[in-house]
Amino acid sequence: MPRLKDQALCIRHLDWSETSQVVVLLTPRYGKLRGLAKGSKRLSPSAVARFSGGIELLTLGQVVATVRPTSELANVTEWDLQHDFLPLRQDLTRQRLALYAADLGHAMLADHDPHPETFHVTHLFLEELIGAKHHATQARCLLHFQWALLQDTGFRPQLDTDVHTGNAIGLHARYWFDPRAGGLTLQQAGNWAVRHETVELLQDVATGQNLDQADTAAVGRANRLLCVYARSLLDRELSTMRFVLDHS
User: Fold this and answer.
1) Does residue 132 share a domain with residue 201?
2) What was the pLDDT predicted at 241?
3) 137 and 118 in a common domain
4) Residues with Cβ < 8 Å from 130, sequence gap 6 or more?
5) Which of 12, 19, 124, 142 has its CA 20 to 30 Å from the CA of residue 131?
6) Do 124 and 229 share a domain, yes or no?
């Protein structure tokens, strides 16, 4: 059975028994990994030594596991906690944003499909959220995260050319977004209206511009656009999306 060792973010978990857990881990080298951590909740010295006292949601650690070809679940044998992101559990808004990031990564990625950039931007987002005390800063962090994840998974929105005609989009007071085609268009029918301020902001995100002076309302609209775009791609609404749509 292949043995793997890697850093990992816990993006989902549930109790398997009184002493064991089923976990979903996001790793840079092995992608999304589902595993069974037998004995991870035991409090014996040997169990605590192997699992740092359990695997918690939204924590970073080093995982050791074996992959069994006859099972969908890897056998998680060790977990060394490296970062508990405790401040995120002490603030409801930041916790909800972090849970949305975990949910979106879980939904957008296939098992065992490595996306080291998604691991990196998710880890960075959680780190930035700890220091983001104000709503405007949190919203900017979220915008960077959503854009980076969509780009890394191959769904970067097309902003420069009309997705229907291929022509340069030009400057307009209002655009429309076609979620099926994945970008902007000047054709209104059946598409979502988007303000030019939102388009300009997303273009700044795409080119790595500093958003510290960005209009908070425009950041909120951009976050909602990317969120509903992800919802359209998944063909379902994640439970954590409602917080982004209602409060960003």
Assistant:
1) yes
2) 98
3) yes
4) 85, 87, 88, 94
5) 12
6) yes
Residues paired with residue 7 on neighbouring β-strands, in sequence order: 62
The verdict on 70 and 171 lying in the same domain is no
Q: Render pLDDT for 77-115 as a digit per residue (tens, 0 to 9).
A: 999 999 999 999 999 999 999 999 999 999 999 999 999
SS3 per-residue string spanning the chain: CCEEEEEEEEEEEEECCCCCEEEEEEECCCEEEEEEECCCCCCCHHHHHHHCCCCCCCCEEEEEEECCCCCCCEEEEEEEEEECCHHHHHCHHHHHHHHHHHHHHHHHCCECCCCHHHHHHHHHHHHHHHHCCCHHHHHHHHHHHHHHHHHHCCCCCECCECCCCCCECCCCCEEEEECCCCEEECCCCCCEEEEHHHHHHHHHHHCCCCCCCCCHHHHHHHHHHHHHHHHHHHCCCCCCHHHHHHHC
Q: Which residues of the chain are under the pLDDT cut of 50?
A: none
**Cα–Cα dist 103/100, whole Å:** 5
CATH number of the structural domain spanning residue 185: 1.20.1440.120
